[in-house]
Amino acid sequence: MAIDRSKFIGRFVEEARDHLVRLDRGLAEMAQGSAGEGITASEIDALFRSAHTIKGSARMLRLLPICDTAHAIEDLLGAFRSRQVQADAGLSALLQRGVDAIASAVDQLDRQPDPDALAPADAGLCAALSAAATPGDAPRPAAPAANQTSERAATQEAKAASAPASAPTPAPAAPPTSGLSDSDTLRVRLDHLDGLIRLMGEIIAQHDRLRLRPDEARRIARGAEAEIAPACEAFAHSLREDVQDQEVLIRELHDRALALRMLPLSILFEPAARNLRQLARSLGKEVRCTITGDAISLDRQLIDELADPLLHLLRNAVDHGLEPPDERQAAGKPASGSVRLEARRDGRWVEITIRDDGRGINVAAARDKAIRKGLLSAEQAGTASDSEIVDLIFTPGFSTSALITDISGRGVGMDVVKSIVLDRLQGSIQVDNRPGLGATFRLRLPLSLAIMRVLLIEAGGETLGFLAQHVAEILRLSRDSLLEVAERRAVIVRNEFVPVMPLAELLNPAFKVAPATATAAEASPQVLLVILRIGQEKLALEVDVLRDERDLVVKPVPEHLRHLHLVSGFVSSGALAVVSVLHAPAVLDLAARARGQSVSDGARTMATAGERVNRLLVVDDSLNTREIEKDVLQAHGYSVTLAEDGIDGLHKAMREQFDAVLTDVEMPRMDGFTLTERLRALDAYQATPIVIVTSREKEEDRQRGLRVGADAYIVKGDFDQSNLIGTLRALLG
Amino acid sequence: MHILIVDDDPLAAELSAAILQAAGYQTLVAEQALDALEQLEANPDLDVVVSDMHMPLMNGIEFFAEVRERGYPCRFILLTGDAPEELQTQQPGLDACLLKDFSLEHSLPRLVAELTASRHEA
User: Fold this and answer.
1) Cα–Cα distance between A531 and A474 in angstroms, integer?
2) Domains of chain B (ranges, CATH numbers)
3) N or C: which end of chain A has fewer CB within 10 A?
């Protein structure tokens, strides 16, 4: 052996993956174009060359299965190129199978760089590709490559004959995931590296100037200057300039160094899409996977962490979302399902959506399952809104084995997906469910975890931080404008009730002071509120002082402090000592528990009074408003069912007779005026009290509300519970 | 003894170079024909050119024609992914046309040795 071929295998894997990405893209375009408009001659030529290059390198390295498959792909692409055969969706799907076969062989090679361990090429697939390349149905003569490899082909055929028929395709239970694995090397564009080195040169030059300053200071100190004061002034001035210059350079250096670690999302999306198609095939489903925005780059650390959750969400879309072709056609949908994977830049964020057009999440089934699994009591499940039920898929223990995909030997359920996105990637995940039409998962992630925008505040004498992404807004308002609701305070922000909690009290129940001895903060006529938002949930935290908002390097929590769920990391900056950055999702959970306790105590004492409980339906598209109204009403002994918009409210009202309905006006799908009108048209609701609770203060709105049949119109701005409860008591008698 | 390798596939170029270096030759690499012509201009007494067939801008046969037109005396070996015999018939002036495969490891150094020996005798 004059040369060591094995060292070239790694290079081959890298190179082949680059070409596979190009092939995937080209085929996706081809699949979308109808009547051959999807792809130009020069694009076909580029695809042909990619296949040809893979073939050439594979043959030189004796990777015959890859070589044979690439050769067959090249045949068909060549026929497109010479216009002998017209490209269409069917043929592009066939090509895609070929490309996927090469991809799994490349993955196999990456795991085990031994050419002899490769499974033989799928002879049926190669034959189909070559046959498709021939206009008419004449079987093609054997390709010239076959003569070169006859001996090997014979042994391969023998092997294939003794193996089960589907040997070449990996079993779906263990999908190849190495396409998503991280390697230890990173290719960096030379010009990026050059720019970095040039910048280093500037920093060194700048530093040289700085080295002269101590001598200057010493000269002034020794009295070498005639006038001390102006000399010191001038010295301070030039020193400040140096520091400012250096700051600019250092920041740029930091940005560029981080940019070196940025990788395009295509690294994740392409193999994931391939994996998706393989899974669909093994399940007998048809899927079209479209990718957009995969040129957006993220820090490598995020890319690595994101691989598993992304794969799980995609597999979930195929496995549980998409229906089999016949079921789809029966439902009036195209036989092949669609999964759209989209990425969008939003400032320093990226939003990734995974949208399928399958059956969506079956809310009724999820509701039953939640009760069966003891996650909710039957009563809770009855009053929970659809979106709250759908959110349960992220609860540990809700994903049954059917929902768990085994990825790289670990069970990953939706709860794991959520915890990776929230805790490790500092992002958020939301699900938007349209029963019968599909589900959309939305992930929002920072582009890099190394440096993040942090809001620094003070509460209870402590300096604490929040990641800016979790802060929806900051309000300063007079203390009187806070509402008292079910022994808790709330504030109205844009047509929404948001619970208010003093941060210090929340973090340390010992801070809780008796109302008699109000602290200085309590006494001040103004309150400063930081409003956190995670998904649809909001919480207003009362803090004492806003310190600063800036980009800081967030250090992860060290291993021995991992049990502190409330802290997501630490920042140190300038004169500040180490500051804890609070983990907003955990703070929200804590607040919900604190509220839930006080409210459920109240509700329990009321419910035991033994009188007939009035059942109310509360319709509002804001989660917080629903929750707060529910708290107030339960505290006064009512049983409450929630609905998230007019349609949902109408359906619930038809299923069950309520004693009164409270509705907001502005809601998606059906507004409160329409809902009131529709309810009044039903026999069962002709005389039922309907109360509109809204932030619309205009008299004409009030008139319209009463015209469509509402009994009362309460403006949220004047909301206080006595008003609401008084109104209800008057209406319900 | 200097050999110029022309191949737009960096891996294939590297492999060819490794094979020839192992046989004791000095190698230069060009990514495509235009680049290769520049290198030839800089080193007009190059002994052998080993070129790939399918390349952007100018394929191996066109490149060969260009090399001869400019009067470079080097030997010219064409490597191809398919049907070397066809190309050899198409362009009889080629010193050799080889299929790109794993046998190159032995055939390429042997061929270079033969071609350069015959050239030195001439």
Assistant:
1) 6
2) 2-46+53-115 (3.40.50.2300)
3) C
**A interface residues, B as partner, C-beta within 8 Å:** 2-3, 5, 8, 11-12, 15, 49, 52-53, 55-57, 59-62, 71, 144-145, 148
Alpha-carbon distance of A239 to A236, in angstroms, equals: 5
Alpha-carbon distance A42 to nearest alpha carbon in chain B (angstroms): 11
pLDDT at A112 over 60: yes
What secondary structure letter does DSSP report for A555? Answer: B
DSSP strands (E only) in A460-601 = 462-467, 471-478, 483-485, 488-492, 497-502, 526-534, 537-543, 545-553, 567-572, 578-582
Residues 4-63 (B) with a CB less than 8 A from some CB of A: 8-12, 14-15, 18-19, 22-23, 52, 54, 56
Chain B residues in contact with A77 (beta carbon < 8 A)? none
**Vertex B76: Cα angle to B70 and B78 (nearest 5):** 120
Q: Determine contact, residues B53/B87, Cβ cutoff 8 Å.
A: yes
- Candidate from B9, B22, B104 with C-beta closest to A53: B9
pLDDT of residue A70: 92
Q: Which residues contact A396 (CB under 8 A, 6 or more apart)?
A: A413, A415
pLDDT higher than threshold 90 for residue A467: no
Q: B8, B15, B19, B107: best mutation site toward chain A, by most A Cβ within 10 Å?
A: B15
pLDDT in tens, A180-201: 444 456 677 788 888 888 888 8
**With contact defined as beta carbons under 8 Å apart, do A259 and A447 qualify?**
no
- Of A709, A717, A714, which Cα lies nearest the Cα of A673? A709
Find out whether A535 and A622 touch, Cβ atoms under 8 Å: no
